[in-house]
Structures are given as C-alpha cells and as structure tokens.
C-alpha cells in the first residue's frame, strides 16, 4: 500500500500535551521588563484565556473543540505515504514513510494551529487577530482560518517579501486578510522606523512589534503566533497522532522520526507522540533538521533570549543564536529563526531530540530526487527533512538494515518554484555561519539569573 | 459528512467509454490533405497503437493497466466534498457537491490522462514524448508522468507564457521536462517563423506544429495531447466513476452535473458516467460552462474544422469558432480553445449536454465566495463551474427545491494568483465576442462534404 488513509472517524479527538510527560519542563517565560516569570494576566492583553491555559497546562490530553474538528475533517486525516519510488531510486532496504501535510488548502501544516487559534479567539469575543508574516506561510494559514471562522485578520508582512513575493500576499487577500507591508504607518513602532528610513525593507522583528502593538492597543483585537509557543506545538501533535494510527495499519513502528526545524512546530507535531513512547522506554530516534546557515540547535546556546529581534516579547528559555542574529536569505524562509521552541529546546537539551544541520544545495538535490521519484514537489523547508531521510536510508543500505524511517512533509513547494529555478540554474550557494559571528551575537545577550 | 473518501480498493479498475452508448457517434476525423477518413496508419507516426485503438473503440469498459492504477493510487480516489460552507453562504436548500481534482501533485485533473499516455508510449518502446503547452497545466502534468514512467518529455511552450509565467515552466523542469519557448529553433516550423520575426510571441497553433513535427521526424518520439481527443476523455472518466460511488455513499444522485469546458476533458470526465444513465432513461442535466469570450458551444457552428490554428491536424467534427479565431487573453487560459472535443460536441448537438457562457468578473466573484466559504482557492477554469453551480443553487432556492448539484473542481489556483490580484484590484474586465467576428471567422472555413 502506497497511501495509507484514515477515515473521518479516525480523526484524533484530542491533542497530545508533552508537558505531561517531559522529564524536565522548560523554565517559565520571563517578563521582559521585570525578568520575573510572566503571569497569565500579562498575556491576557493579547491572547485568549483558553490558549494561555493550554500554554501552561500539564494535562496529557486536551480535547479538540467540535467546531475545529469539523474544519479539520475537511482536509484531515492527511495521508501517510510509503515512499516506494524514493526507496527504489536509493535502492535501500529501509522503509521510508512520509506524512503529507501539504494537501490542506493553504499548502502547509500551519492550518492545524491557525484554525483552533481563530476558534478560541472567536468564542472569547475577539473580532480581529493581528499577526506578522515573513514569507507568508503563516499569514495565509491564518487568513484562511479567519475566513472560515468569521474573524478579521490583519497581517504585517515584511516589506521586502510583500514587494518580491506577491503570490502569498494575494493568497491572503483572496481569503479576505488585510495585508500591510511592514514597517507600516498603522502603528507607532512602524511610523517611528519610517520616519528614520521611509524605504526600510522591514524585518520579522519589526513586523512582530507592529502586530503586538496593534493587538495591545485595540480591545477587540488579539495577537497570534504560528510557531515556537507550547500551544502551537500542541495543536500540531495531530500530525504524529495520525501517523501512529497509520503506521499501525502498515504494521510498522519508526526507528527514526524526522522533521525540519525553524520555530519547531512541524517537528514537535510529528514527533511528540513518538517521544511519549521514547520517554516510556521505547527505542526511537527523533531528528531535527535545520539549515547550516541558521544552526540554532547545533551551534546555538541554551539560555534565555527574546523571541523577537526588537526585544518586545518575553524571555524564552531556548537554544538561540542571539536575537539580533540575521541569517542569510536562504530559500527555506520558514527556517530562518534565531531561536527555537522552548519545548523542542528542552527536549534537545535533555537528549531526547537529536539535531543536524544541512546545506541548501544538498537539500535541493534531495528535493529534486523526491519530486522525480515520488511526484510531489516539496516546500524547501520540508526538503530539509527529506535530505536527512535520504541520508539515513543510505546509511541503512550500507549497514544492510531494514530501518523504518518516517519524515514529515510539512508543505508543498508550488509557491517556492523560483528557488527551484535558482538551484536548477546553478545559482544556489551554501552558507555556513562562522562560529565567531555566532559567539559575538551570543555575547551581547543579557545575563539572566532566575 | 463533509468529505466523502473512498479507499484504494474502491479505485475504478476500468475507464468508461461513452462511444459504446452514444445515440450517434461523431463522424470520423479526416486527413487534412485528402479530406478522407484518417487511417490508423496515418496516426501511428505520432501515437502509440494502444491509444489509437482507444480512440476508435466502441467497447464500453476499458481496463486500466496495473502500472497506471498503482500511480493513480498515490493520489486517487480523490475526495468528493459536500460544500456545506458554500450552501450556508447562499442559504440554499440545494445540496452542492464537488469533486476535488486539484489534490494530485500537478494540481489539476490533467494527470489522469498524462500517466496512461506516458505508460502506453513507454510499453511500445517510445523514449520521448513531445507536446505543446499554453499556460503550462498540460506540460506540467505530462512532465510529472514522464518522471514517474521514466520517459523523456519535450514541451514547446508558447513564448509569451514561457517569458511571463515562469512558475509552470520551472515546475516542468523540476520534474525533468525539457521546455523550449515556441517558436523555437528546434524545428523547421519554428525556424521558418523566427526567420520572419525573431521576436514572435508564439501561439498554441505554432507550438502544436512544432511538437507534431518533432514527433513525426524522430522515430523514438511520439506526440501527446491533453484534451479534445476521445482517448483523453476516456481516461478522465475515472472522475465521474468515483463520483458515482461517493454519491451513493452519501445517498444522493445529482439533478445537475457541471463542468467547465475548454477542450472538454474535465467535463467529459465528470459527466460521461452520468450520461450513461441519462441515455438509459434517468433524469440528469449536464451543463458545460465556457467563457463568454470564447463561446464555442454557445455561439460556434457544428462542422468540420482543424484542431489547431495552423491547419496541420486532421479535420475534426466539432463545435468551432473557426481555427483562426483568437480569443482575448482571459485568465482561464485552459478555456481559450477555438474548438471542442468531438464527443462533447456531438453530445451537445444531440441535446444530451447543455452549454452556457459566463463572463470572467462573475466567475472570479464566485471564486472568491468559494475560497472564503470552502477554504479552497480554485483555478480560474474550475471557477466557471462554480459560478454556474451557484446560479443553479440560487435558482433552487427561489423555487424552494432541494436540488442535488455536482460540479468538478478541476484544479487549484495557487499558480493563478495574479489573476485573483487583477480581480481584487478591479482590473478585470468582461469581454463578449461580437457575433459578426465569429461569423467572419467561420465563413473562412473550407466546406467539407463527406
């Protein structure tokens, strides 16, 4: 069987909260001013109560609301594929499975969390959600959720992406999202920067500041984040929960679970249900794959840092390259983040997740092999996971072992085709961040003692 | 149930050949030189024997080869959706169902025929297939099939699309297709035109000439077409066959089946299995939706005409606006064809299929409503079907009738987002072709007596 389907009745009814089982919980986020643990009240200004509760909950299973399940059911359960074509191309004895999260209407796994986030905001009376977006994956997933839930979406999109990547912007607008190039004249943070430089290209940090300010200064408006936070990873666990059922049908259990890792949401989503087993004694390796140009887990430090560049968010305990680290413009825009989810960071620190960094030319080489053997053109982010799945399958071939490998195909690459063009025409280069630059960026972080 | 899934074992094992049941078969294609019925030998130069046999077969069921079934099974059966969100938005008592053909790896229904076409060519020892493409849907579906079947694909792409729509070209190249802007210097037809005008923007007619010449002058190379011909529509009937099983699960039978119609392949695919019932006495309406700017079925004449602009292909008996009719550059590029499939034309002529023409601003208005209520961004071609499904649902509301409406969502619109931008920014205009222009174009057709 090449494609393992589940029926609607197999759709998981609960998300899995790994905070119930982690050997060690991450230390709490700190208020950026007082450097004391942040209170639920601090967060209420920009988040609905239900999401704040999920953020700090240690309850193992959290019910998925019926209205969310109904929308999930329009594109979930997603299929699990056995990558027969890729196995054949590699002549490996390994069995390679991948979960296809690119079949939802926005083309990536992001809708798994945008839909519940829009839902909880709506039932708490919020009329509008403000968010930031870089390349546009998150902004489009949230705009879609807004359309389906009947809640307005305002997206601050980094100006250089707004100008150079019109497809994602148009997608958001098609779903009714209001998109502003950031820095914009809609917020004080934006206006301040525009006064200094009217042609400022924008950064994700500035866009976050604008969205947070918009949410904090409008009573009917909240803020939403597409990765990093605990509740976001919680919503993504539906990926791994479905995988477990599907692999059971196939009569397999993975030796290795692989996901690409930027903020950590798709990796957490596919792996946490398997980490539950690992914590309880089962043998399974979980590998986070990051770009060598933004090697947070492999070369960063595990310490408190701001979640954004501007230093407006709480301090989070995580692997970080320093909040003013500016990764080069690699094509997997979703993996260009200086930090990492505190949950993934803690699990990595405690040896439950391994991390590996790969260069982008090798990633695109793997993406092309995958496209030609499996037929699916992957998003460049997802292709990082493919690269390491291939490496592991070739290792299994050398060792003559019939390993079972599972990776998450977090999205399709239809809107990323220009990066394929860059690769095919030989214009893509690798970039490894110099260790000294990382050291320098880290040396500027404030020391925080709990 | 919002999404009706079939399992792999429900995948149809045979295509349905409507030539077995048509009250009247279309008159045969004629050799363009002799104007006598074309022989199988004439066709062998550019088509594999299996496809020629399918073209003229009157056998009702034709087995789908196992290797084709295996690849179909990686993305078929596709889901049938109940459009609950759209019904709610329209407050209609009608039940609206749509078949989602945009989930395959190339984003449209075209892979249903590109895969068997590549297969039959491969088993008959052909090493390479040449084809033409306008906007790129067909070229990409065939490039994908070539990658999966291990057969080389050469695509002659209309130069203006090649230059202005790089996404589809890159997609073909990612799957290993060789893409040349047409007119090219690879063929005598192309070189002749380039000598006169080195900056010629190209037409679909020229691209067809180049692909046919390439196939006819290379022994190991054949030609392939993505619509119009009988065998292409045959392969697409898997759409309607699956729909029938899925509607049975839902306990419904359609009052109306709707498909957009350019060459006719997706309309034939979704409707022929229902036309079988209609021919055998069941009541069901089938509606072909075409753009008002290219009103082949609604304003054309039923007569012999060339399939291409240049006059190189056989004469086909069909509704046509005249082979030198140049429709304006509407955004649904897949519907800009002067003629129509002979099967669809005959069925239309015999009153088994109705036709309606709609303007593109109304089409995009419907597309936006669909995107915001169902979450899926449709291809502009498919949005023509949506527009008429909405019209019929509103009519049912007026009449207070609980009609069952089925339409085919032939593809998604990720690569068509610029046309959404044109609509959202008010730049889209309607165009109705003046009757005199059509009359003039038709008056230049050669008279053919059988």
From TrEMBL, chains A, B:
The EC number of this protein is 4.2.1.20
Q: Which residues form a coiled coil?
A: none
Residue numbers carrying N6-(pyridoxal phosphate)lysine: 110
The UniProt entry, under InterPro entries, shows:
Trp_synth_b-like, Trp_synth_b_CS, Trp_synth_beta, Trp_synth_beta/beta-like, TrpB-like_PALP, TrpB-like_PALP_sf
UniProt KW keywords: Amino-acid biosynthesis, Aromatic amino acid biosynthesis, Lyase, Pyridoxal phosphate, Tryptophan biosynthesis
GO annotations of cellular component type: cytoplasm
Listed pathway(s):
Amino-acid biosynthesis; L-tryptophan biosynthesis; L-tryptophan from chorismate: step 5/5
Q: Which GO terms describe its molecular function?
A: L-serine hydro-lyase (adding indole, L-tryptophan-forming) activity; pyridoxal phosphate binding; tryptophan synthase activity
Q: Where is the Tryptophan synthase beta chain-like PALP domain?
A: 75-411
Q: What class of enzyme is it?
A: lyase
What PROSITE patterns does its record include?
A: TRP_SYNTHASE_BETA
Catalytic activity field: (1S,2R)-1-C-(indol-3-yl)glycerol 3-phosphate + L-serine = D-glyceraldehyde 3-phosphate + L-tryptophan + H2O
Look up the record and name the cofactor or cofactors this protein needs. Answer: pyridoxal 5'-phosphate
- List the CDD domains hit by this protein, alphabetically: Trp-synth_B
Question: Its family?
Answer: Belongs to the TrpB family.
Subunit structure, per the record?
A: Tetramer of two alpha and two beta chains.
Stated role: The beta subunit is responsible for the synthesis of L-tryptophan from indole and L-serine.
Name under which the protein is recorded: Tryptophan synthase beta chain
* Originating organism: Thermodesulfovibrio yellowstonii
Which gene specifies this protein's sequence? Answer: trpB
